């Protein structure tokens, strides 16, 4: 049987592989966050995860969606951005709920003033319009404030894009910013680990999945002729993932700090 006799098998097989790759592209980006999400729910502690990762990914994917209106790229990449935006909002919701439950006595911070009265926490009356404090940016006490901030950014960026959609320079710059920010996704986690000299609370499974997913994604970009910005920033993203894995290894090899000895009773009496 000649090669043409296998066309009836190869053509649907190729189509099936294409669908599988597209599905992996759409949903593969959110899979790494499942272990981290489950760890936070189980421990009720979100300190090990930097919510600035969510901020970077939200901004990057919103810009990528807007970039699509100026320069149409493959549909799986567009759907990936939509799915990732929803996933980051879910991560923010969980982190906000966990932190709010553990900081009941702390001063609450808001992006915009709320309608309800904070009688239980005895928060002083807030200004009637805006209660935004730059010092507490992205550290708000209500998930609704994050949603308001995301909607405000989306509206402003969408309006600017609508006015400048005919400018090729603007569209290409928008696309570059989108993929550059996505490549910087792991930088907030990298900085958080360096600042605390620890990766405690961070899911290693999440970072391993970041690395494998970003490697697959970069190969997908190169093989499917995606815009150059996508490929270059994909390679940068893989390098950041490897740096975080190196941090995890270095901090794990470091000997634990000796526990502080309790003061001798006689010394305590002398004090």
Architecture overview:
With about 270 residues, the protein is an all-alpha fold. Helix content is about 65%, strand content about 0%. The chain is built from 10 helices and no strands. It has helices spanning about 5-25, 35-45, 50-70, 75-100, 145-165, 170-185, 185-195, 205-225, 230-255, 265-270. Helix 1 (about 5-25) runs parallel beside helix 4, helix 3 packs antiparallel against helix 6 (about 170-185) and helix 6 runs parallel beside helix 9. The model is unreliable at about 115-130 and about 260-270 (pLDDT under 50).
Query: Averaged pLDDT, please?
Result: 80
Give the biggest beta sheet.
none
What is the count of β-strands?
0
Ends distance: 95 Å
Uncertain segments are 116-129, 259-271
Instruction: State the helicity in percent bands.
Output: 55-70%
> What is Rg?
23 Å
**H/I helix tally:** 10
Beta-strand proportion: under 5%
Form type: globular
Order of helices and strands: HHHHHHHHHH
Structural class by sheet pairing and helices: mainly alpha
């Amino acid at each position: 049987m000649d090669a043409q006799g296998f066309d009836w098998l190869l053509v649907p097989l190729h189509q099936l592989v294409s669908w599988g790759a597209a599905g992996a592209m759409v949903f593969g980006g959110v899979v790494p966050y499942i272990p981290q999400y489950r760890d936070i729910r189980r421990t009720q502690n979100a300190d090990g995860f930097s919510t600035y990762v969510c901020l970077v990914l939200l901004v990057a994917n919103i810009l990528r969606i807007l970039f699509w209106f100026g320069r149409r790229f493959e549909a799986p990449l567009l759907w990936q951005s939509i799915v990732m935006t929803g996933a980051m909002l879910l991560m923010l919701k969980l982190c906000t709920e966990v932190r709010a439950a553990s900081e009941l006595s702390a001063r609450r911070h808001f992006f915009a003033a709320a309608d309800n009265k904070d009688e239980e926490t005895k928060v002083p009356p807030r200004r009637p319009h805006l209660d935004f404090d730059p010092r507490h940016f992205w550290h708000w006490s209500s998930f609704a404030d994050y949603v308001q901030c995301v909607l405000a950014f989306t509206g402003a960026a969408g309006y600017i894009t609508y006015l400048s959609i005919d400018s090729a320079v603007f569209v290409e710059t928008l696309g570059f910013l989108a993929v550059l920010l996505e490549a910087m996704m792991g930088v907030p986690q990298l900085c958080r680990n360096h600042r605390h000299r620890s990766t405690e609370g961070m899911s290693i499974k999440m970072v391993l999945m970041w690395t494998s997913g970003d490697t697959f994604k970069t190969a997908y970009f190169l093989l499917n002729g995606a815009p150059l910005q996508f490929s270059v920033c994909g390679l940068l993203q893989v390098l950041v993932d490897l740096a975080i894995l190196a941090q995890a290894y270095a901090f794990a090899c470091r000997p634990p700090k000796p526990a502080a000895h309790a003061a001798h009773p006689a010394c305590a009496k002398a004090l």
